[in-house]
């Protein structure tokens, strides 16, 4: 199983779209609180459509609660623009987790330090004048690379 971890997401439409992708790929979605929206938000439901009831989702009060959860991933990879390794160059395994940061500020420095430099992964940007891809787009790209490697 692939674990998709959203660290304090801010935009409900992104979370809904990622939830839909997780439901379709049978990946577990972890939401690290606080969230920037109510989980009942109509935009969340609309973007996740009727897939939300098929979603394997876990809510965690904070990062520490997530790390202590028995339902978590075996290994973590931070999906970040501060990574040195392309997501294509990682050999993923069942039970891995992809961690995505807040839409406005990414992942905090302390989390980068905790997970370590060798687990910071990036999606290459060909136009270097632009900052990053949308969170839901990034998650979809990364999730399907893991699926491809695991031949799911």
The structural domain count equals: 1
CATH topology: Alpha/beta knot
End-to-end separation in angstroms reads 10 Å
Write out the CATH superfamily name.
Answer: SPOUT methyltransferase, trefoil knot domain
Strand order of the largest sheet: 3-2-1-6-4-7-5
Give structural notes.
- The protein has 152 residues and is an alpha/beta fold.
- The chain has a single domain (3-150), classed as 3-Layer(aba) Sandwich (Alpha/beta knot), CATH 3.40.1280.
- The chain is built from five helices and seven strands.
- Helix 1 links the parallel strand 1 and strand 2 (28-32).
- Helix 1 packs parallel to helix 2 (42-48) and helix 1 (12-25) runs parallel beside helix 5.
- The longest helix has 16 residues, at 135-150.
Overview features:
Alpha/beta knot; alpha/beta; 152 residues; seven-stranded parallel beta sheet; 5 helices; single chain
């Amino acid at each position: 199983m692939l674990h998709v971890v959203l660290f304090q997401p801010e935009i409900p439409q992104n979370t809904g779209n990622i939830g839909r992708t997780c439901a379709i790929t049978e990946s577990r979605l972890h939401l690290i609180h606080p969230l920037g929206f109510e989980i009942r938000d109509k935009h969340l439901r609309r973007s996740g459509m009727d897939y939300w009831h098929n979603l394997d989702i876990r809510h965690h009060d904070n990062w520490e609660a997530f790390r202590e959860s028995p339902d978590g991933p075996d290994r973590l990879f931070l999906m970040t623009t501060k990574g040195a390794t392309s997501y294509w160059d990682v050999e993923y395994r069942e039970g891995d987790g992809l961690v995505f940061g807040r839409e406005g500020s990414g992942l905090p420095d302390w989390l980068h330090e905790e997970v370590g430099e060798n687990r910071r992964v990036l999606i290459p940007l060909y136009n270097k004048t632009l900052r990053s891809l949308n969170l839901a787009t990034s998650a979809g790209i990364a999730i399907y690379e893991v699926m491809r490697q695991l031949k799911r």
